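Q: what sequence does this backbone want?
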């Protein structure tokens, strides 16, 4: 992979676009800077993200505001136990041709045919519908009645999960969770942020969001991400982060051997580099370094490793383990 820096014009443009979208979202969302950044990284790297947090943290408002600021079509799907695959992909109906009078099938597009799709509480729908959703995410197309229909470009799924009230839910299997680039933890606001939410929520009309991007701009930035250079030592650093979690391997870290039942696969390594490249680009860098990899590692890794009973008994979380991994692997000696 080339170590030549990316052209300065593309870097400046990408950073300018990121800051513009960030400014517009801040008109309606208080705080949540890290969450907004990770969602934008997912979009600019042509990936999907899963947001997890208790109700009332403005996850839906954040995603709808993002679509508005980027001038993209947006659909929200509220996942329920009775939702069928055809409810999201679309279905064929019989219609009468007004010219010939003959009956014919016509495809009615489902809500997946949008640039940004909010899959709200994706863990509340049965596995069959989840599978249809995840297939569309992976292939960016759907098949109905033996015909294949391509989804709009760009296409992103931003899904949410409620970590409480798990009765009657269908948790996503680990293999399906792996298809999301990020698992973004949406936490409670700080004191001053919550006070500002109260002021805005009980005050006048919020400031209107002005669209600052379009589909062509997003595709341009996605192409720029692909061209971001990555040195071999950065690749080795990312590979080491993923490989050290595989507890049955000799090069696994002691904490991973003790606390993990399984580690991250190659998709984690790919995700670390893709997200790190985007993280560098929106910061105005023309190259990717190990610090970018370390910055995105928690949200890349937390849903790709699993704690065993020992960890659960001692109150050790995947985030705790990822922090220890980052501290244990030196960025300047990634091959050691």
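A:
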């Amino acid at each position: 992979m080339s170590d030549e820096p990316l052209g300065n014009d593309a870097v400046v443009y990408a950073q300018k676009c990121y800051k513009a979208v960030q400014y517009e979202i801040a008109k309606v969302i208080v705080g949540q800077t890290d969450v907004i950044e990770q969602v934008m990284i997912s979009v600019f790297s042509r990936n999907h993200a899963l947001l997890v947090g208790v109700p009332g943290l403005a996850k839906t408002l954040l995603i709808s505001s993002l679509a508005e600021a980027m001038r993209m079509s947006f659909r929200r799907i509220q996942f329920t136990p009775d939702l069928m695959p055809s409810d999201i992909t679309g279905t064929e109906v019989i219609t009468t041709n007004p010219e010939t009078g003959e009956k014919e099938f016509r495809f009615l597009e489902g809500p997946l045919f949008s640039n940004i799709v909010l899959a709200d509480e994706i863990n509340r729908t049965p596995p069959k519908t989840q599978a249809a959703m995840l297939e569309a995410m992976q292939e960016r197309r759907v098949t109905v009645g033996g015909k294949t229909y391509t989804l709009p470009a760009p296409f992103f799924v931003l899904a949410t999960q409620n970590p409480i009230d798990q009765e009657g839910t269908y948790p996503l299997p680990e293999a399906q969770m792996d298809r999301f680039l990020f698992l973004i933890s949406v936490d409670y606001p700080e004191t001053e942020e919550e006070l500002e939410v109260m002021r805005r929520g009980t005050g006048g009309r919020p400031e209107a969001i002005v669209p600052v991007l379009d589909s062509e701009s997003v595709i341009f930035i996605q192409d720029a991400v692909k061209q971001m250079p990555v040195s071999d030592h950065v690749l080795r650093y990312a590979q080491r982060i993923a490989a050290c979690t595989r507890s049955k391997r000799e090069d696994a870290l002691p904490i991973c051997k003790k606390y993990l039942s399984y580690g991250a696969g190659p998709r984690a390594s790919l995700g670390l580099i893709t997200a790190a490249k985007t993280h560098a680009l929106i910061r105005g860098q023309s190259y990717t370094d190990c610090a970018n990899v370390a910055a995105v590692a928690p949200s890349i890794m937390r849903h790709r490793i699993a704690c065993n009973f020992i960890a659960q008994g001692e109150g050790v979380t995947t985030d705790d383990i990822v922090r220890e991994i980052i501290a244990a692997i030196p960025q300047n000696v990634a091959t050691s």
